[in-house]
Amino acid sequence: MEATFFTLFLLPAALGLLGFVEPCTIGAHLLFLDTQKARTRAEKWRAVTVFVLVRTLVAGLFGAGAAFLGPRLIEAQTGLWLVFGWLYLGIGLIFLAGRGGWIKQRLEPAPAAWKRATSPLVLGAAFGLNVPACAAPILFALLGMAAGSGAALTGFAQMALFGLFLSLPLALFVLFPGLVGGLERFGRRFSSTGRVLGAVFILLGLWSIWFGLHVDPADWAGG
């Protein structure tokens, strides 16, 4: 895939912002913000800076690795989209049927041990390595693009931008602390409203299935 301004910057940035507001990532971001409540504003700014930089670096390394693997990763791309698409479609239908309680208990934003961590360095690395369930199709799309680039630097740049814009909105919550309450209410509404969460999963599932059926990964590899 030829790197363009759209594929190298606009698309990773837009998908990162979309990932920030997905139901599964809201909980992770609230967890990080909760660790900052007792800190001064200067300490919060340092913590957010470290968190964003580390998460961006980890995401970028994923992209560089994807570019290195190249065609081997691309060959699996269609299958991943289809598998996750049908999985998300099924989860969405379960939520719409009012049976989503069991699933919600297993959509935790992070393992219990991470919830006790307070270091922004540790949390940045942890959440950089942890792929929220809702963000998986987005991540697979970007990893496929990175693999198709064939250049480790391009793959690093694409995924690093995704990680940057996935985390950068946290700065707004340090600048305007009153916004945290709004994010908490938004997250609670998603977690308590099975129909809304079900609709989100169904849309993600249809989006992923469409990619699996209509997007040719060989085009990314220049084939």
Task: List key phrases describing it.
mainly alpha, 223 residues
Uncertain residue segments: none
What portion of residues is helical? over 70%
Individual helix count = 12
Through-space gap between termini: 9 Å
Radius of gyration: 18 Å
Query: Which percent range describes the beta-strand content?
Result: under 5%
Shape: flat
SSE ordering: HHHHHHHHHHHH
* Average pLDDT score: 75
Largest sheet: none
Query: Helices and strands: which structural class?
Result: mainly alpha
Tell me the number of strands: 0
- Number of domain modules: 1
Description:
With 223 residues, the chain is mainly α. The protein has one domain. It is built from twelve helices and no strands. Helix 3 runs antiparallel to helix 8 and helix 4 runs antiparallel to helix 7. It is flat.
Structure summary:
The protein is an all-alpha fold and 223 residues long.
Produce the secondary structure layout.
Blueprint: H1 5-20, H2 23-34, H3 41-69, H4 71-96, H5 101-104, H6 120-129, H7 136-149, H8 152-167, H9 170-175, H10 179-192, H11 194-214, H12 217-220
Helix pairs in contact: 1-8, 2-10, 3-6, 3-7, 3-8, 4-7, 4-11, 7-8
